[in-house]
Amino acid sequence: MINRISRKNVIAVTGILLIVSLFSCGGEKKQEVKNIRSITVNGAGATFPYPLYSRWADRYQKITSLKINYQSIGSGGGIAQIKAGTVDFGASDAPLGKDVLDAENLIQFPMIVGGITPVVHLKGIGPGDLKLTPDILAGIYLGKIKRWNDAEIVRINPGLSIPDVDISPIHRADASGTTWIFTNYLSKISPEWRSNVGNAVAVPWPTGVGGKGNEGVSAYIQRINGAIGYVAFAYAVQNNFAYVKLQNQAGEFIAPAPASFRAAMANANWALAPEFYVVLTDQPGADSWPICGPSFILLHKNQENAANTRFLLDFFAWCYDHGSDTAEQLNYVALPQNVIQMVEAEWASQIRVDNKPVWFEKKQTN
């Protein structure tokens, strides 16, 4: 059995060289390994986790001199590219159902959990100043609430000076997992939204302007006075946006933060979720942020290159083991250890090269 690189020690280039040697074909074990440092693993997809994935990839390259190239193109693009086989891994905030995964021979697993945050651009309104209810948020995106000094907004924000300006809703223009999570939430809290618009990576928006990626939505929010948009919380913090406090299922007005994302994640039952299909919107609990979700990685079960596949899985394992502090710094939430163990068990049982496993579960010791 091949023991994988120690989870407690920094992954060394010599370890990667050993992996290449071990997976070489029989009589060619002594073949020269050609410039292992030139290996680049390519991924594409969700913009939601991009700040974290890019930071992880940068840190990993400094440790190993090996490169992870991740394109922030949206979940729809990531799903399309992994299906087409033009990338080594895809990333999506919209989970795929078992039927789709089986049809494409894909494995899906979560990497992190984060929050989607409504943010506004209003003169005199800072982060956490403005409160919104689920009904108001749905009414804005349905095009029914058009001015910021609407009576209902003023009523739940006593003492707050709200300017009398038009509301300019901003949404995603591309096929987006962030949109999937956001519209999943709106579909749960608004029967009208559920009936007329629905939950998908791209929907027929009743109103507003579309931007490509979390980056594009952020750019519109920065430019338009009166704008409201939805972005991953990491983008809200990076851009110093005025995020709202949103009323949750328990009736509490909650600020987005890793603690409130973690409270929502506490309700997840990963062990009973086929293909890790977990949705974390509108979760119960006084401390739960209402618009949360995991971000998923998509891989083909049948791989062609054992060394590259092993390198990629070692990168994901390193992120799980050594990336939680960075995740917290960037306002994401790392997965619990029991979920990581479930994921690695799936790697061991599902991912193959020439019908042989590439990943071996770590032996448990007392």
Please, could you describe this protein's structure?
This protein has 366 residues and is of the alpha/beta class. It has two domains: 13-114 and 293-357, D-Maltodextrin-Binding Protein, domain 2, CATH 3.40.190; 115-292, 3-Layer(aba) Sandwich (D-Maltodextrin-Binding Protein, domain 2), CATH 3.40.190.10. It has helices at 13-22, 50-64, 75-84, 98-104, 134-141, 151-155, 177-189, 191-196, 213-223, 233-238, 258-265, 306-322, 324-329, 337-350; strands at residues 40-45, 67-72, 89-92, 106-121, 131-132, 168-172, 209-211, 227-232, 242-243, 245-247, 253-254, 280-281, 291-300, 302-303, 333-334, 352-353, 356-357. The strands form three sheets. Strands 1, 2, 3, 4, 6, 7, 8, 9, 12, 13 and 15 form an eleven-stranded mixed beta sheet that branches. The longest helix has 17 residues, at 306-322. The chain is elongated and about 65 Å long. It starts with 12 loop residues before the first helix and ends in a 9-residue tail after the last strand. Mean pLDDT is 89; it is low at 1-36.
List keywords for this structure.
366 residues; alpha/beta; D-Maltodextrin-Binding Protein, domain 2; 11-stranded mixed β-sheet; 3-stranded mixed β-sheet; 14 helices
In round numbers, the mean pLDDT is: 89
Briefly, what CATH class of the largest domain? Answer: Alpha Beta
Q: Give the oligomer, counting copies of the same chain as homo and different chains as hetero.
A: single chain
Q: What radius of gyration results from the CA coordinates?
A: 22 Å
Question: How many domains?
Answer: 2
Percent of residues in helices comes to 25-40%
Low-confidence stretches: 1-36
Describe the main β-sheet briefly: 11 strands, mixed
Straight-line N-to-C gap: 20 Å
CATH architecture of the largest domain: 3-Layer(aba) Sandwich
How would you describe the shape? Answer: elongated
Tally of helical runs = 14
The CATH superfamily of the largest domain bears the name Periplasmic binding protein-like II
Count of beta strands:
17
CATH topology-level fold name of the largest domain: D-Maltodextrin-Binding Protein, domain 2
Q: Which percent range describes the beta-strand content?
A: 15-25%
Structural class: alpha/beta
